[in-house]
Design goal:
Blueprint: E1 4-14, E2 17-28, E3 32-36, H1 43-50, E4 58-64, H2 73-77, E5 78-81, H3 93-102, H4 110-119, H5 135-147, E6 153-157, H6 165-179, E7 183-187, E8 199-202, H7 203-206
Parallel strand pairs: 3-7, 3-8, 5-6, 6-7
Antiparallel strand pairs: 1-2, 1-4
Length: 207
């Protein structure tokens, strides 16, 4: 799948304060982008702009894939994991993943859902209501939620947040697997979260 992400002169202003400006990069298959910077530098803001959650004040982000024509490329081609995303606490893990498929117009696949839950070590708790989960379990479920539609682009904001050593191991494995065939974007103030990247955007250097 030939997918491409292009950010051109991205600028964001909040309350007349420039968060960042002149951010440009191009990502293609099997490339990884690391976004780093101190707390408050705008890492999550940039992630939200690339994910089409926020609109930039200036510039633009385009996501393209010539082999797939869809009305909403962000929804179809992108998976996002972030501490500020919320799950449906009154649903089970399996119900959350079925909903993730439904909003994309995809058919529910219980066998794949169970495989995915096993991938994030939640297969024994798939029928449990999510509000009974620990913060680390919820974070791992977010990875399953992001991966349920096989997105070629995976965006991770503070990927190791709320995770114990087993959770960190699982996430590192997911990152390594994904960059072998897709595009990986990781935002963190700790570059040790990323063992390899092709492009670095240091928001401390541009602010």
């Amino acid at each position: 799948m030939d997918v491409q992400v292009d950010a051109i002169n991205i600028k964001k202003v909040f309350n007349r304060r420039v968060i960042f400006e002149n951010i440009s990069f191009s990502l293609s298959q099997r490339q990884t982008l690391a976004v780093t910077g101190r707390n408050g530098a705008g890492k999550s803001t940039l992630v939200k702009i690339v994910s089409n959650v926020l609109t930039p004040t200036g510039g633009r982000v385009t996501i393209s894939c010539p082999t797939i024509i869809v009305a909403n490329p962000h929804l179809a081609l992108l998976g996002l994991v972030s501490p500020y995303l919320t799950l449906y606490d009154e649903f089970s893990a399996q119900e959350n993943l079925r909903f993730a498929l439904a909003i994309r117009g995809l058919q529910s696949d219980d066998q794949f859902i169970n495989v995915l839950l096993k991938r994030v070590s939640l297969h024994t708790r798939g029928d449990d209501i999510v509000r009974t989960y620990s913060s680390g379990m919820k974070q791992r479920l977010k990875y399953a939620f992001a991966l349920v539609h096989h997105p070629p682009i995976l965006i991770l904001d503070e990927p190791m947040a709320n995770l114990d050593s087993d959770g960190i191991r699982i996430v590192r494995e997911i990152m390594i697997e994904h960059r072998e065939h897709g595009i990986l974007m990781v935002a963190s103030n700790n570059l040790s979260d990323i063992d390899r990247f092709d492009i670095l955007v240091d928001l401390d250097a541009v602010n």
